[in-house]
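Tutorial handout. Part one gives the primary structure; part two gives the three-dimensional structure as tokens.
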Amino acid sequence: MKRDVELLVISDVHLGTYGCKAKELLKYLDSIKPKTLVLNGDFIDIWQFKKSYFPKSHLKIIKKIISFATKGTNVFYITGNHDEMFRKFADFELGNLKLCNKLCLDLDGKKTWIFHGDVFDASVQHSKWIAKLGGKGYDLLILINTIVNWFLEKMGKEKYSFSKKIKNNVKKAVKFIGDFELTASELAIDNHYDYVVCGHIHQPQMRQVVSKNGSCMYLNSGDWIENLSSLEYNNGHWEIFYYEDNKHLFSDKEAEDDQEISNEDLLKIVTQFS
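Part two.
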């Protein structure tokens, strides 16, 4: 039995990169029936895209999203910095699938502002080549981390996250996350939003922020590289959903081999659902 989800927000999937946990994401998506799905930026990683690497498991995610749309789910694709080339097609609609740069919703009378969040990142806005170089370094770090965790699992030991350890021990990274959350929240408060929902920083979060002008709830959906997290909204309540904490909800059936597939085959899969 699939779970009904009123609103699902996922971000930073980074399809087309080695770090993307597409198989886990597919298991999650197969277990739910969302009424509205928001892909909040960096869904496909155009920055790191390589023609030689777009495995079948990544294609299945695209196919699943299109399937949701054809079966009545309202799907909103919000652009991020890694898929910024789609921004010139903002406001494009194809059935239940809509492309946009930001989204404003009314959730049970609460004003909700959803956007990726890279607008607050100076490295993205002013030194894009540095941001892209950092993206490649992060992708390599995740690839190495995946190999290390494979050995740790074989040895019966817990997984270890290199980037989380770095972020938690580098004061500048911690300060950036705090500044990001505060900036987004203060802007939302000034514009009378009750909820502000972001992605970009790969840091799942849900907290109330209070300023002299009012308050709002700041939410971040995290990512599908390390945290494997999403935001679910049901009956007036938000929840951060973690894949690792809910494995009992998913099927144990083996995924198909992660066989690479050509761009021509990708086009065929996409067009047959359009």
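Part three, for discussion. The first strand starts at residue 3 and ends at 10. Residues 122-135, 254-258, 270-274 have pLDDT under 50 and may be disordered.
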